[in-house]
């Protein structure tokens, strides 16, 4: 009986069924420079990822011809850091473009499953205090636990009728809300919001908002730009500064808040699949959200491994937001008082 050509696999044609694992690429045979320039990360970090994800990736491929975990990880890193399934990338590690795509899916799923281990607010008191001190050294803003902002990642249009992912600039995107600490380490990454949602709407529906609203006592506050609502635990800029103290507060706020914008730029520069230079992500919104989250996990893992968050940072400054959402008639009076005391005690 003839086998339909649609089910044939390029790797099967090349290697046959006799191979339990396809030995396409030996990481030991290439230079450190080749690994860094081709896959975006140094050798030791790649070894660590193999150790971290190896069991999961082996289980995912155990019922078919297994592509080794290290080759799967290299394929995924190649895509994340270049944004394309180039033939030469597949040739470098000995797999077809179709297999490249499957490897990216496997590694993305494995990284998403690790997200809660590497991204979260649950840290020890010493780490929290150290981060507050580092924030304070930036511009004198005290008790900052993190900085929050949103950014849009361009995606393929889901379908002609679905306008929920069309943002105010007219292209389809996912609106991602990140919170990071003073080093650019992500404390929260929500990468699934439709691009049509404004930042303050995303924030109000976010897990971060619920997390802090549910707390009775707050050890400090997040910093958000003028798209965010003023809260007891979220300090925003003054929309209409009047006194020298007001202006000093706004300047310190902007300098400190810039850390999250730098983090966005660093992530998009390191992971070119997110920065738009190769076009939009060619997947469903759900899969795009998972790819973005996987890159966020890799960002944190790399920081924990001692890599610099800003090594690949772009130099372009982010676009300024157009208008704020602070209205005196809906302002939280207690939050307003907290901000006034902050200005009086630290910026007068």
TrEMBL record:
**What's in the keyword line of the UniProt record?**
Cytoplasm, Hydrolase, Metal-binding, Nuclease, Nucleus
Q: Where is the DDE Tnp4 domain?
A: 148-300
* Pfam families, alphabetized: DDE_Tnp_4 (PF13359)
Q: Which GO terms describe its cellular component?
A: cytoplasm; nucleus
So where does this one cross the membrane? none
Cofactor names: a divalent metal cation
Gene Ontology MF terms = hydrolase activity; metal ion binding; nuclease activity
Localization, UniProt = Cytoplasm; Nucleus
> Its biological function?
Transposase-derived protein that may have nuclease activity. Does not have transposase activity.
Which protein family is it in? Belongs to the HARBI1 family.
Q: What is this protein called?
A: Putative nuclease HARBI1
Organism annotation: Albula goreensis
């Amino acid at each position: 009986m003839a086998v339909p050509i649609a089910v044939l696999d390029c790797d099967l044609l090349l290697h046959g069924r006799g191979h339990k694992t396809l030995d396409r690429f030996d990481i030991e045979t290439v230079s450190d420079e080749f690994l860094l320039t081709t896959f975006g990360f140094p050798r030791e970090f790649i070894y660590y990822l193999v150790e971290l994800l190896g069991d999961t990736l082996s289980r995912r491929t155990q019922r078919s011809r297994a592509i080794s975990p290290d080759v799967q990880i290299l394929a995924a890193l190649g895509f994340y850091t270049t944004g394309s399934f180039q033939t030469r990338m597949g040739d470098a590690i000995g797999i077809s473009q179709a297999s490249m795509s499957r490897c990216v899916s496997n590694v993305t799923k494995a990284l998403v499953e690790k997200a809660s281990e590497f991204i979260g607010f649950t840290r020890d008191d010493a780490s929290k205090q150290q981060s507050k001190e580092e924030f304070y050294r930036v511009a004198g803003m005290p008790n900052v636990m993190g900085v929050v902002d949103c950014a849009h990642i361009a995606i393929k249009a889901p379908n002609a009728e679905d306008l929920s992912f069309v943002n105010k600039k007219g292209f389809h995107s996912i609106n991602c809300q990140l919170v990071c600490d003073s080093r650019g380490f992500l404390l929260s990454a929500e990468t699934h919001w439709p691009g049509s949602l404004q930042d303050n709407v995303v924030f109000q529906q976010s897990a971060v908002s619920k997390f802090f609203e549910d707390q009775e006592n707050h050890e400090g506050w997040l910093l958000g730009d003028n798209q965010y609502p003023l809260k007891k635990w979220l300090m925003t800029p003054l929309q209409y500064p009047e006194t020298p103290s007001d202006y000093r507060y706004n300047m310190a706020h902007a300098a400190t808040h810039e850390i999250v914008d730098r983090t966005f730029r660093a992530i998009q520069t390191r992971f070119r699949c997110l920065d738009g230079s190769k076009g939009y992500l060619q997947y469903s919104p759900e899969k795009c959200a998972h790819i973005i989250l996987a890159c966020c996990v890799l960002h944190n893992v790399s920081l924990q491994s001692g890599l610099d968050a800003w090594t690949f940072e772009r130099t372009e400054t982010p676009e300024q937001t157009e208008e704020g959402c602070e209205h005196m008639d809906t302002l939280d009076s207690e939050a307003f008082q907290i901000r006034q005391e902050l200005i009086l005690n630290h910026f007068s």
